[in-house]
Structure formats: structure tokens, C-alpha cells
Amino acid sequence: MLNRYILSIVLILGLSEAAMFQTVSPKKATMTQTGKAKNYCPNCGMHLGKFYKTNHVHKDHQYCSMHCLVENNKDSLPADAKVVDTNSLKFIDATKAFYVVGSKKKGTMTMNSKYAFASKDKAKKFQAKNGGEIKTFKEAYEIARGDFKKDMKMIGKKRSKKVYKMGKKMYNKKCQKDKIDVKSFDKISSLKAHIKDNKLCGKKIKDKQLQAICVYLWDVEKLGITMANKKAILVPKDAKCPVCGMFVAKYPKWVATVTHGKHMHYFDGVKDMMKFIFSQNQKFTNIKVTDYFTTSGMKAKKAFYVVGSTVYGPMGHELIPFSNMAQAQEFKKNRNGTKIVRFEDITKELVLSLDK
Fold first, then answer.
1. For residue 233, what is the DSSP state?
2. Distance CA 148, CA 201 (A)
3. Residues 6+ apart with CB under 8 A from 4
């Protein structure tokens, strides 16, 4: 039964790879990175050739998409970035490119596709056939920044729904688990190259199979992302955050609570909880937050909070809690956080700065 399941996945993935507009042959793709992991996006691990027409280059990194470029440069416009010209397949100055945003061609790591062209005439021809709007690099980048939270949610749903399950089954079926130490790698691209080069999951494994395995290993085994947890904070379906008015039960990974007497207030993130606490002229003692890795509830004063990462909560930038410093440091490193604070270090000014 398992073999039949894996075979069906392989057939589906093979067909999807062949049909992708972004894909070009290895001979036509230019890889600017060096080293064993040069063919993979350093952020998500995806094969750069498979998504070549949306590749961007900035500094020493080649990204599969503008989404991943934004993830590593969330606070500034990378003015020296380069992008693949959809027609010539050569890298061009991104600031001089004409982007067609929102065409019917599928995007990479986003629901809002972005394809670049060296000339406006070429962009218009593509637009006439595929729709979308012509934008400058700066405009397209701002759109990508605006879409980032929504796209991360979409990616997370896809991974939770099928990628983790598929990756885990293939990992258990195909891989030499004793030779794969995911915690020893600082990038998913390096992990992927190691597994492929050493044939640790078979000699003929397809890239999409390998990608699913690596995403499972990276997200679940390394970062500790989980879905269901008996120690999670239980939230009534009708509970609304008193700060933003959103239904908290929709966001189990972000739940925070404050108890006052017999009444419990529910929040869809630490940020809104702290806004509430700072707005009250009283002290609260029973305060709980959700550990980002395990989704377990814990006392707020025991948590370590990562600030400024590329991971967004339901209300944008967040104070992301972890049960220990080691996990917080690992997350900060992998998700470009700016600092780690304890509960007593959280100030009103810090909380308000997260909305800027």
C-alpha cells in the first residue's frame, strides 16, 4: 500500500515538474552560487533550475523567487539585485527590469506571480497573452512584501496538509536515517545537497521527492514545527482577541492568555496581549503564551522571545516565544531575527515598534 502511495506521488510530481513554466534545461540556466548546494535556493531548498524564470540574485545568494529575496531583505530594497529575463534567460539589473505581476502564469512561493523582462515591449507582449500589470522592481518588491504574510500562510498550509506527511513517509522508506543529522546544517540547501550527493535517499530520487523529505526534516525535525498538541492552550471557538477582534481559535500556534479573576482573555499573539497588559492599570500574574516549536502552552515569564524575524503572526511582526534559549537562538539564526528578550524586557515601545 505504501509503495503504491509513493508511486502515485512520484507520477504526479513528475507530471507537474514537466509542465512548469518556470523550468528551463540545465544548459540554459546560469548558477551564480558556488559549492555543493549551488543548485538550490538557500531559503527554501527548491531547485533553482526548476524555478529559473523567477530567480533573483543578491550578494552571494541565488533565490528561487522574489518571495525568498524579500525574506532575507525584509527591511530594505536590495537595489543591487539581479533577476532572470524571462525571454533571454540572462540575469539583468532588477532595477531596470519590467515586471509583469499577477499574470495567469503560476508564481514561485506566491499566489501573485512576478516575471521580469529586459524591455517594456517584451513585458507588454507577455501581458497581452497572460494578463497582469507591468511594474517596476520597486513596485513589484513592495507587492511581494505586502503579500509575504499571506504567502507564508499559504505555504504553511500546503506543507501541513501534504508535504510533511509525504516527506516523512519517503524519509522512513527511502533514506539512510543514521547518516542524516539535520541539526548539523545551517541551511536547508546544504542539507539537500548532502543527501543527494551521498545518495542517502536512493540513487534515482526525484527532486520533488527530495524536496519533500528535506522540508519535513528541516521544519519538523530541526525546527520542531508540530500541528496537534495535547498541551496546547484550549480556546473557545467564539473567543475574540480584545485588541484586534479576531477569532483566536483560528490561530492555535499564536495563542496567548491573561487571566483576571475568573475571566480569561484570549489573544492571537503575544504582541496584542502585551498591548492589552500595557493598557490596563493593574498587574496580571497568570499569563500564558504558546511555544512556537511545540505549540504547548507555557508561563509567559519563562519564555524566550525572538523579535524581528521573517515569520509573521496573524497581526504581522511578533514576539515569538520559545521554552528555552537554544531553540530561540536557532530560530533567530534561521529566520533572521534581530534579538531575543525575556518577558520582563518587553516594553511598550518595543511592542509598538512591531507595527511600524
1. P
2. 32
3. none
Q: What's CA 52's distance to the chain center, in Å?
A: 19
Give the DSSP per-residue string, 334-350.
HTT--EEEEGGG--HHH
255 touches 228 (CB < 8 A): no
How distant, in Å, are the alpha carbons of 9, 116, 209, 225 from that of 177?
A: 21, 41, 16, 19
CA dist list (Å): 17 to 21, 50, 176, 261: 9, 7, 26, 57
Q: Give the integer Cα–Cα distance in Å for 189 and 37.
A: 6
3-class SS of residue 163: helix
Identify the bridge partners of residue 266 per DSSP, sorted by sequence position. 257
260: confidence class by pLDDT, cuts 50, 70, 90: confident
In whole angstroms, what is the distance from residue 303 CA to residue 342 CA? 7
Q: pLDDT tens for residues 151-170?
A: 998 998 888 888 998 999 99
Alpha carbon of residue 159 to chain centroid: 10
Please state, as a whole number, how many other Cβ atoms lie within 10 Å of the Cβ of residue 25.
Answer: 9
Q: Which amino acid is at 175?
A: C
The per-residue pLDDT for 262 is 78
The residues pairing with 251 across neighbouring beta strands, listed in sequence order, are: none
Give the separation between CA 141 and CA 110, rounded to whole angstroms: 13
Signed CA dihedral, 301, 306, 308, 314: sign only: negative
The position carrying cell 498587574 is 283
Residues 213-251 pLDDT 10s? 999 999 888 887 764 466 889 898 889 999 999 999 989
Whether residue 5 has pLDDT greater than 80: no
The residues, any chain, with a CB within 8 Å of residue 179's CB and separated by 6 or more, are 198, 200
Give me the count of residues in the chain: 356
Inter-residue long-range contacts of 21-26, CB under 8 Å, 24+ positions, other chains counted: 21/53, 21/105, 21/106, 22/50, 22/51, 22/52, 22/53, 22/54, 22/106, 22/108, 23/49, 23/50, 23/51, 23/52, 23/53, 24/49, 24/52, 24/53, 24/89, 25/49
Q: How many CA atoms lie within 13 A of 246 on its CB side?
A: 16
Query: What burial letters (b/e) apply to 281-305, b meaning 16+ CB within 10 Å?
Result: eeeeeebbbbbbbbbebbebeebbb
Angle at which helices 188-197 and 207-216 cross, to 10° = 130
pLDDT at 229: 60
